[in-house]
From TrEMBL:
Assembly mode: Homodimer.
Catalytic reaction annotation: [L-4-(L-arginin-2-N-yl)aspartate](n)-L-aspartate + L-arginine + ATP = [L-4-(L-arginin-2-N-yl)aspartate](n+1) + ADP + phosphate + H(+); [L-4-(L-arginin-2-N-yl)aspartate](n) + L-aspartate + ATP = [L-4-(L-arginin-2-N-yl)aspartate](n)-L-aspartate + ADP + phosphate + H(+)
Domain ATP-grasp: 236-491
InterPro entries listed in its UniProt record: ATP-grasp (IPR011761), Cya_phycin_syn (IPR011810), Cyanophycin_syn_N (IPR044019), Mur-like_cat_sf (IPR036565), Mur_ligase_C (IPR004101), Mur_ligase_C_dom_sf (IPR036615), Mur_ligase_cen (IPR013221)
UniProt-recorded name of the protein: Cyanophycin synthetase
Role: Catalyzes the ATP-dependent polymerization of arginine and aspartate to multi-L-arginyl-poly-L-aspartic acid (cyanophycin; a water-insoluble reserve polymer).
PROSITE patterns: ATP_GRASP (PS50975)
The organism of origin for this protein: Kribbella sandramycini
Length: 933
């Protein structure tokens, strides 16, 4: 329904509900960036746009007034308000509310889209951007509840309370200011990043180039340096040995020792934990033994090892010097948490007023921390002559803590450009002595603008992983962009942060092409990380055995520190479920778009399937390449989606329309891989501009079975095009293709050939009609070769076939029809996972297709149903003779190959390789003839 249609009359009900939720973690069918996808049902609200619900817009803007800044489709501020006044549907409104809720939580998200599901009135696809996955999902759920509340008020729903709860959740999952500053700097330099846990552990870069940060600790931070900085006593002794100004101190374990040391050093003293942080447990300006006894347990409680330090109390202002990679980058004066009297409000009221500052939050989530009034604060206020209920005179400062830590509610004043050079040199030398790449040097001195050796003062602490927010967001003064030197240290100018990514998709041939590309680059010495339907392979080692063609597997490869080249097989299901899972691919390879997986997840047509696979092409940057099959019309159209350059591959004959187009493309400087035919055979030729370079004869490539397996000829051309685009020299591409074969070691489950007691057995993963056409063409060519060389008469062709249960009935039926054109005998089996089908249903559908083709005169003369995979294979082998061709379309290829090897060994030992009857899952159709002997 459009915004101008007239709705039916009635009373609106709060029917808006979410019926499906997806999280896209990379480019997807809806956007180039990560997005939340909600499928919602409006119910009766389909009949009620916003302008038909009295007071709806007013109530909406009363709770979320900043919605008036949304542009919507009008492209200007206030555009969304115009849409509300004209009348827009509540799914669209939920999208904008989801975005605004995230903005309320500090995530500046502005991109969204709402579209009606075709053929389903009242059902809408809502997509919107997110920064944090959990926050984005929570925003969508709250938006739907809020819109329903606006339609019909729910007395149990308090939007103010719900919004506060939502914001607190966002704060819990958000990066701290230090981590966020580094991540933002990395993003500005096009450095990819991955969040590795729910806290602050982040990977910057990919594969072999990856670095890690946790807050302001980096993968370059030495563990010994951190241990030294955590031991304040050792830190002080090391700094003193370098002649740097430090207070006199000793570490002790008992309260009596603390008093003895304090008496020896002279009062006032400081009592602090040996290995504390954030100022916790630090007690300052202790004037006598009683104060030391009172402070000792406070410091000991915060010491992980039970040691406490007693040192001279150095008077002066508190300065934090930030040293990054040996250089001073920022200095902040830290002022302890305090309030300033106004002659009107009490101390407690002044604290409340100060905490009302929107910049203050809990912990490190905001640029300032709320002041906490605890027992220590009350006592400190009391020592200044006040109680919490007293009204301090105007302009009188009342301290609430003694330490200037931001984490205890202090404020910061930027002093970066005011520090005396000698003080800067002392701070830099202190960081070098401890060995930290990022260090916070705490100075106590009267004035940082004067040499500390002359004015008095000392380094009281050296901090590993110092917080950045006092520098990036000072309360007073200019912000310092200190994330820049951190990223400079991790990725010096000109350093690489990304590894090349080749992504391969298509209905058929993805796995073999991915393996070919990987093999080429392995031969060049690269450490290749590859994902496929068989698992994840890292540098030739299978590390995970499962279907790994989705986005999660891709991220696992990008996190591996050994990988310097990535090849991803990308399946349709993963794109629809989560998107690509990574930001972009340097090379996208699209092999074909054939009728398979239709009818799943809203993909009902080939054009829709092409749009899904085209996401890879859209993810190609300007510097990248799309390797496209020019022989497939749907793949050809994807050239319009590519921001980079297109590399064509084609098996079309010279003089055809496709070849003429490719020739024109190359004359304009483009690239292509084509097939040149001659009496000597077929030659794969690489074209770049006006140059033509012969690559290899197809019959010399082992994977093509002497040029008979045309599907692997095409896969080899696609692999050559991708490798050439990735910068591989021609001789390395040639060597890679010449040494790649379909053995089980290099290509498990893809055209594996094995001799079983004189039978030629081919094991393949073929499971749909288009793949069966290609496999059938190979069977015909191989069968002719076997006929010519056979001394036992005309060999039979026996096939074991199956498909997945989530295919359409017509696709399953077609598989049987196509197979019947190429085999003499077909044994129909089923996978272990039926995907919603009843046992035997799939096999009967395939067999029906075979019978229909047999009635029309197909080659096949017999079809049998044997449901169990291994039983079906044993049955096919038992019904074959020496010299026959047996093709096994398998599901569990490892189990099948183990079985074949066992049978082969038994045959070699003189045992019979099968039993011709009694299979428990065997069903013989009526009228089926026995195979000829």
């Amino acid at each position: 329904m459009s915004d101008t249609d007239t709705p039916t009359q009635g009373t609106p009900s709060p029917d808006l509900k979410i019926i499906e939720t997806r999280v896209y973690r990379g480019p997807n069918v809806w956007s180039y960036d990560p997005a939340i996808h909600l499928v919602v049902d409006l119910g009766s609200l389909e009949q009620f746009p916003s302008n038909t619900i009295p007071g709806f817009t007013e109530r909406l803007l009363a709770d979320l007034p900043r919605l008036d800044q949304h542009h919507c489709s009008r492209g200007r501020k206030g555009g969304f308000i115009e849409r509300l006044d004209e009348g827009t549907w509540l799914g669209h409104i939920a999208e904008h509310v989801s975005l605004q809720l995230q903005q309320e939580a500090g995530h500046d998200m502005r991109r969204g889209k709402t579209r009606q599901v075709k053929g389903h009135p009242g059902t809408y696809n809502i997509t919107y951007a997110y920064a944090d996955e959990a926050v984005g999902l929570a925003a969508g759920e709250l938006a739907v509840r809020f819109v329903n509340h606006l339609v019909q008020p729910d007395p149990e729903f308090d939007f103010t309370v719900e919004l506060e709860r939502f914001i607190k959740q966002a704060e819990r999952t958000a990066f701290g200011p230090s981590t966020q500053a580094i991540v933002d700097e990395a993003v500005s330099r096009d450095i990819p990043w991955i969040r590795l846990n729910k806290a602050s552990l982040v990977q910057l870069g990919q594969g072999v180039h990856a670095k890690r940060i946790r807050a302001t600790m980096t993968s370059e931070t030495g563990s010994i340096a951190v241990d030294v900085a955590s031991d304040k006593d050792l830190t002080t002794r090391l700094l003193a040995s370098a002649g740097l100004p430090v207070p006199r101190s000793e570490s002790i374990r008992t309260v009596e020792e603390a008093v003895t040391v304090a008496n020896k050093l002279g009062y006032p003293v400081v009592c602090k934990p040996l290995d504390g942080n954030h100022g916790r447990g630090v007690c300052l300006n202790l004037q006598d033994a009683a104060a030391v006894r009172e402070a000792f347990p406070i410091a000991a409680e915060q010491s992980r090892r039970g040691w406490v330090i007693v040192e001279n109390f150095v008077t002066g202002k508190d300065y934090r010097c930030l040293i990054i990679n040996g250089r001073m980058e920022a200095i902040a004066e830290r002022v302890p948490a305090h309030v300033v009297g106004d002659g009107v409000h009490t101390v407690a009221e002044l604290v409340e007023i100060t905490n009302a500052d929107p910049r203050r939050g809990v912990g490190h989530e905001k640029i300032l921390t709320r002041i906490t009034v605890n027992a220590a604060a009350r006592e400190l206020v009391r020592t200044q002559g006040f109680e919490l209920d007293d009204v301090p005179p105007e302009d009188v400062m009342v301290k609430l803590t003694l330490t200037g830590n931001m984490s205890t509610g202090g404020i910061s004043i930027d002093r970066t450009w005011e520090a005396h050079p000698e003080n800067v040199e002392i701070a830099e030398e202190a960081a070098r002595m401890i060995g930290l790449d990022i260090a916070g040097i705490d100075f106590i001195c009267p004035d940082i603008t004067q040499p500390v050796r002359e004015t008095g003062g000392a380094i009281c602490e050296v901090n590993a992983a110092p917080g950045f927010r006092m520098h990036t967001n000072p309360t007073i003064g200019e912000p310092q962009y200190i994330a820049k030197p951190v990223v400079d240290m991790l990725f010096p100018p000109g350093a690489t942060s990304r590894i090349p990514i080749v992504a391969v998709t298509g209905t058929n041939g993805k796995t073999t092409t991915s393996r070919m590309i990987s093999h080429v680059f392995k031969g060049m010495g690269r450490k290749v990380g590859m994902t496929s339907t068989d698992g994840i392979v890292i540098d030739e080692r299978l590390v995970i055995r499962s279907d790994a063609s989705g986005p999660k597997s891709a991220r696992m490869v990008l996190q591996n520190p050994r990988v310097d080249f990535a090849v991803f097989e990308v399946a349709r299901g993963g794109i629809l479920r989560e998107g690509l899972g990574y930001e972009r691919n340097d090379i996208a390879v699209v092999l074909n778009v054939q009728p398979d997986h239709l009818g799943l997840r809203g993909i009902d047509t080939l054009e829709q399937l092409a749009d899904v696979k085209g996401v890879l092409v859209e993810a190609v940057p300007r510097t990248g390449y799309a390797v496209l099959n020019a022989d497939d019309p749907l793949v050809r159209k994807m050239r319009r989606k590519c921001s980079g350059q297109v590399v064509w591959f084609s098996m079309a004959e010279p003089g055809s329309e496709v070849r003429d187009y490719i020739e024109g493309h190359c004359r304009r400087g483009g690239r292509a891989v084509v097939l040149e035919r001659s009496d000597l055979g077929d030659m794969i030729v690489v074209k770049h501009g006006r140059r033509s370079m012969q690559l290899a004869w197809t019959h010399l490539l082992p994977a093509t079975f002497g040029g008979r397996a045309m599907m692997n000829v095409q896969n080899a051309m696609a692999a050559a095009a991708a490798a050439f685009a990735a910068g591989a020299p021609l001789h390395d591409i040639r060597q890679g293709l010449r040494t790649f074969n379909t053995s089980y070691y290099l290509s498990p489950g893809r055209l594996n050939e094995i001799d079983v007691d004189g039978r030629t057995v081919i094991v393949d993963y073929c499971h749909n009609a288009p793949a069966m056409r290609m496999l059938g063409d190979f069977v015909d060519r191989l069968g002719e070769s076997l006929n010519a060389s056979s001394e036992l008469g005309r060999p039979s062709r026996i096939g074991v076939i199956a498909t997945a249960g989530d295919r359409r009935d017509e696709d399953i039926h077609e598989l049987g029809e196509v197979a019947a054109q190429h085999f003499d005998v077909l044994v129909v089996r089923e996978d272990a996972r039926l995907r919603g089908r009843k046992r035997g249903e799939l096999a009967e559908l395939i067999a029906a297709g075979v019978r229909q083709a047999m009635e029309a005169g197909a080659r096949c003369r017999q079809v049998e149903i044997v449901l169990d995979e291994l039983t079906a294979i044993r049955h096919a082998l038992a019904r074959s003779n020496r010299g026959d061709l047996v093709v096994l379309c398998v599901d569990q290829h490892q189990t099948v190959l183990t079985e074949l090897e066992s049978v082969s060994h038994l045959a070699q030992a003189g045992a019979r390789s099968g039993d011709e009857g009694g299979d428990p899952d065997f069903v013989k159709p009526e009228g089926a003839d026995a195979p000829e002997e």
